C-alpha cells in the first residue's frame, strides 16, 4: 500500500478551532471536526465514546469525497450533489454507506438514478451491496444480456448473486429459444405459400431459404446486449433482416405481396410480450435467498 501523502493543507470548510478530531484524507488534506456531530449523525464514525487524543484518523477516501460527506454531518443545509461527475457521485455514495451518514443516503440514491448508461453495471453492484431494489432492477435490465463472466469477475458481483444472475440471464435466453422453436415448427415446403381460409385460418408454409433468414434474424436479436437496442431492432425488424448478407428472402417472397415478412410482427410481439413478462432481478434474488440461513 502507498504511504499517505504528508499533510499539506487543512480543508477550509472544516477547520474549526474547537474541533476535537482530525481526519486525514487519502490525498493528505486535514479535516477538523467535532466528534459529537460525527457520533450523533453517523453510524460509522467514532463518536464521543472514543478518545482520539491528538491522533489523526486516516481515511482511504480523497478530500473531494470527504468534503462532501462531512457536509451532511453538520446541522446546516445539505448539498444537493448536482453537477458532480458520476464517478464522484459513486465514490460519495460508497462512503456514505460505509460510514452510515444517514442524512446523505436519500440524495445519493436520487443521484444514482441519473446514471449514464455506461455506468449501469457499477450502479448495479453498488445497489446490490447496499440493498436498493429499485436501482437494482433499473440497472439490471440494461445489461442483462452481457456475458455473465465479465460481470461476475470484472465487477466483483457478490457470491449470493451469481446463481440468481445466471437464472435471470437464462430467463432472457429462453424467450429467444422459444421464438427459434416457433420458426422451426413452421411447415416446410419447397416454396413459401400463404393462404387465408374461409374460417379465418391461414396456411403458412415456408421454404428453406426464408426459414434460414428468420432464424438468422432471431439469432442476431438474441446477441443484442442492451434492452434499448433490442427494442429498437424489434420496432424495425427489416433493418436487421436486410443486413443479412448471406441469406435473403426467396424469389416467391420478394416477388409477391404476401411474404415471410408476416413473421416479423409475430416475432416482435412475441418477444416484446416475453420481455415484459420477465420478472425483475430482485425476484430471482428473493427466490434464491428465501431459505438461506442468515
Ligand atoms: Zn420462400
Ligand atoms: Zn418466404
From TrEMBL:
<protein>
    <recommendedName>
        <fullName>BTB domain-containing protein</fullName>
    </recommendedName>
</protein>
<dbReference type="InterPro" id="IPR011333">
    <property type="entry name" value="SKP1/BTB/POZ_sf"/>
</dbReference>
Amino acid at each position: 500500500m502507498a504511504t499517505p501523502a504528508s499533510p499539506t493543507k487543512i480543508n477550509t470548510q472544516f477547520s474549526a478551532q474547537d474541533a476535537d478530531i482530525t481526519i486525514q484524507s487519502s490525498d493528505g488534506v486535514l479535516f477538523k471536526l467535532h466528534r459529537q456531530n460525527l457520533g450523533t449523525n453517523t453510524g460509522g464514525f467514532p463518536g464521543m465514546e472514543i478518545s482520539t487524543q491528538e491522533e489523526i484518523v486516516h481515511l482511504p477516501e480523497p478530500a473531494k469525497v470527504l468534503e462532501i460527506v462531512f457536509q451532511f454531518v453538520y446541522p446546516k443545509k445539505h448539498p444537493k450533489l448536482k453537477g458532480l461527475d458520476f464517478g464522484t457521485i459513486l465514490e460519495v455514495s460508497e462512503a456514505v454507506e460505509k460510514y452510515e451518514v444517514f442524512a446523505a443516503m436519500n440524495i445519493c440514491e436520487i443521484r444514482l438514478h441519473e446514471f449514464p448508461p455506461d455506468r449501469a453495471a457499477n450502479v448495479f453492484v453498488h445497489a446490490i451491496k447496499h440493498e436498493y431494489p429499485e436501482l437494482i432492477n433499473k440497472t439490471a435490465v440494461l445489461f442483462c444480456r452481457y456475458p455473465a463472466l465479465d460481470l461476475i469477475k470484472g465487477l466483483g458481483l457478490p457470491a449470493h448473486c451469481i446463481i440468481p444472475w445466471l437464472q435471470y440471464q437464462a430467463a432472457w435466453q429462453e424467450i429467444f429459444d422459444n421464438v427459434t422453436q416457433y420458426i422451426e415448427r413452421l411447415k416446410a415446403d419447397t416454396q413459401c405459400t400463404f393462404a387465408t381460409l374461409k374460417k379465418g385460418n391461414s396456411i403458412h408454409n415456408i421454404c428453406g431459404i426464408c426459414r434460414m433468414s428468420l432464424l438468422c434474424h432471431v439469432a442476431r436479436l438474441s446477441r443484442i446486449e442492451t434492452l434499448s437496442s433490442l427494442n429498437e431492432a424489434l420496432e424495425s425488424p427489416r433493418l436487421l433482416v436486410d443486413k443479412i448478407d448471406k441469406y435473403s428472402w426467396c424469389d416467391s417472397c420478394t416477388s409477391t405481396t404476401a411474404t415471410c415478412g408476416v413473421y416479423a410482427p409475430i416475432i416482435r410481439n412475441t418477444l416484446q410480450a416475453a420481455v415484459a413478462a420477465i420478472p425483475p432481478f430482485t425476484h430471482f434474488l428473493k427466490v434464491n435467498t428465501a431459505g438461506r440461513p442468515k
